[in-house]
Amino acid sequence: GPQAPSKRQERRTQDVWASNLVDAMNKIAEVSESHQYVAMDMLFPGTVARPMGPFCSYMEYNYQTLKCNVDLTRVLQIGLTLLDSEGRRPKGISTWRFNFAFDTSEDRFSYEALDALRRDCGVDLAKHHSQGIQPHEFGEQLMTTGLVLNENIRWITFGCSSNFSERPPEGAQVRPPWVTFCGVYNFGYLLQLLTSQSLPDKAGDFHESLNLFFPSRCNMAWHAHQLHPHTLTGKDPSDPQHRPLFCSAHHVLEAFFRLPESFRTSLFVEGDPDALFFDLAEPQTDGQGQNGKRRKRSATAPAATHVSSDATRCPAAKTGGG
User: pLDDT tens, 126-152?
Assistant: First the structure.
């Protein structure tokens, strides 16, 4: 099974606060010239709202849930991990954990999620309040690193564990959307930090923004079938929140570098639908199974024509519930 990170790995992670933000970004700019494979993970303040319906598709419902939560909340922490084309870490630091300003008297959050972060992950809310990074400063600094708007930087992610264009799973044991659609939420928060604006109103425009800021992306959710069944879907023993392995940048990168080398390089070929994958939709084959060429689908095409009424009538803002 997957191993918890060793003490050596822990030492290769640096916590970044407002005081060392510029130094950390300078270092990332330097490292990313040779280490161009990037993955991210985040600590979220939970789900605080559900959008009002009706919706013409589950794609629209899932995207609007993403949009209203990203627009209303602040991420607490973003981790960025960089490796080279052989999967090797840079010397010294390879993961930077950016800790953001967060004020529980002003910022929205789910009590359940924040309690878990405090209790299980050791999140120090007082320190986030007094020493955390301001979102606009992070966005401005990240723009200078060369990590974004750059086709040479390969972002490895795990878009979603269930199809973004289908009805979201329901029931007591169901994961919150920021876990189920982990990779999409990661990009949503990062895009908001880079633009200092609300997310686009339409999923298709969101996808176009991703193509602009992160032109080379690989969605490991499409390729997990080539690996051991539980490589990314099992629970992460080192995660205090007991999230799946696909929520960890370290495990997503490790899985990517387990794919055959010839296959890995083909994932970023310009013009291949995989290179600009529509993060929110499952790949579609032309009947030739997994080897069939994937059809390109319009980012704005509705993935369903009908959404049942119980999926559309949600409270405008519901605090709590993970």
Answer: 999 999 999 999 999 999 999 999 999
| Cα 147 to Cα 138: distance, rounded to the nearest angstrom | 13
Cis bond before residue 54 (omega within 30° of 0): yes
**pLDDT tier at 179 (50, 70, 90 boundaries)?**
low
Nearest to 322 by CA among 116, 159, 169: 116
Rounded-to-integer distance, Cα 230 and Cα 313, Å: 35
Alpha carbon distance 233, 225 (integer Å): 11
Q: Is the dihedral of CA 261, 298, 184, 221 positive or negative?
A: negative
Q: Are strands 216-219 and 13-16 parallel, antiparallel or unpaired?
A: unpaired
Cβ–Cβ < 8 Å for 47, 70 = no
* 8 A C-beta contact, residue 185 and residue 70: yes
Alpha helix segments (H runs only) across 196-298: 203-213, 249-256, 261-266
CA distances to 2, 52, 127, 214 from 207, rounded to whole Å, are: 32, 22, 35, 10
Task: Tell me which residue of 48, 42, 317, 310 sits closest to 176, measured CA to CA.
Answer: 48
Residue 274 gets which letter from DSSP? G
Task: Provide the whole-model pTM.
Answer: 0.77
Long-range contacts, 119-124 (Cβ 8 Å, 24+): 120/240, 120/241, 121/43, 121/240, 121/241, 122/240, 123/43, 123/76, 123/77
Which of the two residues, 276 and 68, has the higher pLDDT score? 68
- Tell me what pLDDT residue 287 has: 35
**Helix, strand or coil, per DSSP, at residue 154:** strand
CB atoms within 10 A of CB 56: 15
Which amino acid, one-letter code, is at 116?
Answer: A
Extract long-range pairs of 209-214: CB within 8 Å, 24+ residues apart: 210/279, 211/276, 212/149, 213/148, 213/149, 214/148, 214/153, 214/155, 214/187
State pLDDT tens for residues 35-74: 999 999 888 888 888 888 788 888 888 899 899 999 999 9
